[in-house]
Amino acid sequence: MEAITLTIPDELARQLRPYQADLLDILSVGLREWETAKRKAVPTQRERILEALQGTDLIQPLEPAIARKYLNSRPHQRQKPLKLDGKPLSQIIIKQRGTL
């Protein structure tokens, strides 16, 4: 074990004196609680982004009825590509842009 000397306010020392034999346990529990609270206090990047967006009113919470509708719906079916005559659109765009 290692000895650590702390300077604490008189009032805190008075409150801790009756628990002198339990100080190691008190410090261990307190440290765990403090670390847990500290982890919760640091928002993730996603939480920070959502908070920023909600602050601008660009996004609104989804109404529960609408959310249920989407959760209960079938997955979107992929449509077959259309068969059209002529050049592919990508080739037309490349021709319009010219050579680089």
> Mean pLDDT, rounded to whole units?
86
Largest sheet: none
Distance between the termini: 72 Å
Order of helices and strands: HHHHH
Q: Pairing-aware structural class of the strands and helices?
A: mainly alpha
User: How would you sum up the global shape?
Assistant: elongated
The residue ranges in which pLDDT falls below 50 over 5 or more consecutive positions are: none
Q: How many helices in DSSP terms?
A: 5
Number of strands: 0
Portion of residues in helices?
A: 55-70%
Strand content: under 5%
Radius of gyration: 31 Å
Give an overview of the whole structure.
It is a single chain. The protein contains five helices and no strands. The protein is mainly alpha-helical. It has a domain at 1-60. The model has no long low-confidence stretch (mean pLDDT 86).
